[in-house]
Amino acid sequence: MNETNTDMTGPSVSSPSVLVIDDDEACLDEYIEIVDSLGYSCRSAKNANDALTILNSDESVGIVVTDFQMPGMDGLGLLEEISARSTSMRPITALMVTGHGSLQTAVEAMRLSAVDFVAKPLQRGDLISALRRAATRRSQLLGQAHIAALHDAAAGGKVQPDLELEDEEQQLRRFLRGQIASRRRRSEFINSELFTDPAWDILLELTLAKLDKTPIPTTSACAATQVPFSTAFRHVGNLVTSGLVRRWKDEHDSRRVMLELEDDTYEAMTDYLLSIKASSETGSN
Q1: Which of 2, 27, 158, 201 gets the highest tally of CB atoms within 10 A of its CB?
Q2: From CA 147, how far away is CA 141, in angstroms rounded?
């Protein structure tokens, strides 16, 4: 049995050890030979109790290959114990091998986080492929744990709240664009003149512009209303007079007049949009 990994073409020295469990000695020897051929360090046990002892004492074990039918605790019971011992920083991926398979057993094994369910008589290629998938899955879990640790560290340095704020703004931006698109799509089915609300369309467009930190020309805001420009311009004037919108000439191009929501208006609009976004998500659950 290979207890050290000297095969430079196989897993690195930091790769997990593989623990194989089967009460059939011939099967056990076969599994060990296959695992050794892949360059993994390998340990073995003939029953679940011995396997758990090894897991508790040897933290290098990261992949388990277990038979289903064994005296005492069976493979599913062992998987349940393994699941309880597995942590984000020490993920243990498991393979179930059985000659007495059933759909119910396979489903239960997967529920207990088994990566694969391999049937006897075992084909060498099947076990090799399953071991590679288990190693890949373990690497993914370790990567996720590493990212989570970085996020926790960032939160301690007050970086995480900024990331959360950015995510919220992205979600709000996507929701707002959906609202604007929905209002525009309405005209494809119903005469838009029957349901005109130019001031609201302008406010939505200016909210999106402020989210993007980009003031827009008056003409762009008016175009969003789907009403004659003369009507839209009048609504822009009303919004400016009401103190909801700020208007000024573009210092780089005097032909353009720019619009932007006042800060109080922007805060009120985002609060409203977040409230209806939350209501829509609650209603869809």
Answers
A1: 201
A2: 10
